[in-house]
Design a protein that fits this description.
single chain, alpha/beta, Rossmann fold, 2 domains, five-stranded parallel sheet, two-stranded antiparallel ribbon, 7 strands
């Protein structure tokens, strides 16, 4: 490989490394802001260290490691940051291409709203976007019922389900139209709760509409297929890029976890 090719390759790797660092630093920042668990800190912290430390200490490693071992390590690092950048961009393209379905929201309909972080007694901006999307559907169909789902997360005073139901009631929705789940801690937990409550309340014959953030919908669609929840999908637009970008990085890691740990079962 000539010198020019080596320089282009090195520049490409450094560009991918810089992009990867921005992604995981934003992810870590969002976790710190929301006071997550130790495990939630550990993953983005490790990723940031893996991405940032090697380029800064490359000369030291090169001086102290056998040449073969150093080259193997550099190859692993380069492959990892390039792989992340390429697959992350592919995922973003897939998320962008996903479009909400046009739903027939008339008569007996079940609207399932997926939980998100809350702030005291109020929904976070992202959760508010989901709830406002659900409100539009509920206002247009007075016969529809709504299931809201979300447990108590770290640093929260009230469960997501409680805050979601309270928000809907404060915006004019009859409490009799709201079914609340306060146990689900994940997307697959939401779906399991929806299935159980639909069965419990005799709503199995009702058309189901899943409501969440747009970037969340492809994974919801995949998991609904796995668990047998027949649904149409309406995505709420995330207005703030400062919230959207780290959420998409987190969504990427959710796909990785799902595939590596078979965690959808």
């Amino acid at each position: 490989m000539n010198k020019t090719c080596k320089q282009i390759l090195r520049l490409s790797v450094l560009t991918c490394a810089a992009f990867s660092a921005v992604c995981f630093l934003s992810y870590l920042s969002s976790v710190v802001t929301h006071a997550g668990t130790f495990f939630s800190y550990a993953l983005p912290t490790f990723a940031c260290a893996f991405i940032i430390v090697p380029p800064l200490t490359e000369k030291t490693w090169e001086a102290h490691l056998p040449k073969t071992l150093f080259l193997i390590g550099r190859t692993i690092y380069s492959t990892a940051v390039v792989f992340f950048t390429v697959t992350f961009c592919i995922m973003c393209g897939m998320l962008h291409s996903f479009s909400s379905q046009e739903v027939e929201n008339t008569g007996n309909t079940v609207i399932c709203v997926y939980g998100c972080r809350v702030m005291g007694e109020n929904p976070s901006p992202m959760l508010k976007e989901r709830l406002d999307t659900a409100l539009t559907l509920l206002y247009s169909n007075p016969d529809a019922v709504c299931i809201v789902s979300g447990a108590l997360d770290d640093g929260e005073v009230h469960t997501e389900g409680y805050v979601m139901a309270d928000y809907l009631m404060h915006h004019g929705i009859d409490p009799k139209r709201i079914i609340t789940d306060e146990t689900a801690e994940s997307t697959k937990g939401n779906i399991r709760a929806f299935l159980a409550l639909i069965e419990e309340h005799g709503l199995s014959d009702y058309p189901c509409i899943s409501v969440s953030s747009e970037f969340h919908m492809p994974r919801i669609k995949f998991l609904c297929g796995k668990y047998g929840l027949d649904s149409t999908y309406v995505g709420a637009k995330t207005e703030r890029f400062s919230s959207l970008f780290p959420s998409v990085v987190r969504e990427y890691m959710a796909y990785v976890k799902m595939l590596l740990l078979n965690s959808y079962t």
